[in-house]
From TrEMBL:
One of its GO terms (biological process) is mRNA splicing, via spliceosome. PANTHER family: PRE-MRNA PROCESSING FACTOR 4, WD40 REPEAT PROTEIN. The lineage of its organism: Eukaryota, Sar, Stramenopiles, Ochrophyta, Chrysophyceae. It comes from Spumella elongata. InterPro entries: WD40/YVTN_repeat-like_dom_sf (IPR015943), WD40_repeat_dom_sf (IPR036322), WD40_rpt (IPR001680). WD repeats lie at residues 100-130. This is Uncharacterized protein. GO terms for molecular function: U4 snRNA binding; U6 snRNA binding. Coiled coil: none annotated.
Length: 130
C-alpha cells in the first residue's frame, strides 16, 4: 500500500472526496477554496475560490468523469458554505454555474442523489432541503 501526504491548504481542510471515476481528489477548506488533485500522483490540477467564507462540504455529481480541462456547462460539483449558500460548478469557469440560497444559517453538508437527479443540503438552521 502506497502512502502519500499532501498539504492541501493554508487553513484547515473540511472535506475530501474522490471523483466518481476515481481520477481526481477534491478538497474543501476554511479558506473557501476547493482544490483538485490527480490520483495517484497528487499533482494539483485546479483551484477555485468557491466561497468568501468557509467551504464546509463538497459533492461530486455521480455522472462526472474525466479530469480538467472539462468541457461544457454541466453541473459536476456542488459546494456548501458558512455563508449559507450552495454553489453549483461546471468546473470550466471560475464562477459558479448556479447558486442555491434559502438556508438561514451555514450549510454543513451537500450530497447528490445516486442518480444525480436531486441535491440535499443540511444546515445549522436545523433544516434540510431537497
Amino acid at each position: 500500500v502506497a502512502e502519500v501526504s499532501q498539504v492541501g491548504d493554508e487553513r484547515p481542510l473540511t472535506q475530501g472526496k474522490f471523483s466518481p471515476d476515481g481520477g481526481l481528489f477534491c478538497t474543501s477548506s476554511w479558506s473557501g477554496f476547493i482544490k483538485f488533485w490527480k490520483v495517484p500522483s497528487c499533482e494539483p490540477t485546479l483551484t477555485i475560490r468557491a466561497h468568501e467564507d468557509r467551504c464546509n462540504s463538497i459533492a461530486w455529481h455521480p455522472s462526472c468523469k474525466g479530469a480538467p480541462p472539462f468541457e461544457g456547462q454541466t453541473v459536476r460539483l456542488a459546494s456548501a458554505s458558512a455563508d449559507s449558500r450552495i454553489n453549483l460548478w461546471c468546473l470550466t469557469e471560475s464562477q459558479p454555474l448556479g447558486v442555491l440560497e434559502g438556508h438561514e444559517d451555514r450549510v454543513n453538508r451537500v450530497v447528490f442523489h445516486p442518480m444525480g437527479e436531486h441535491l440535499v443540503s443540511t444546515s445549522h438552521d436545523m433544516s434540510w432541503r431537497l
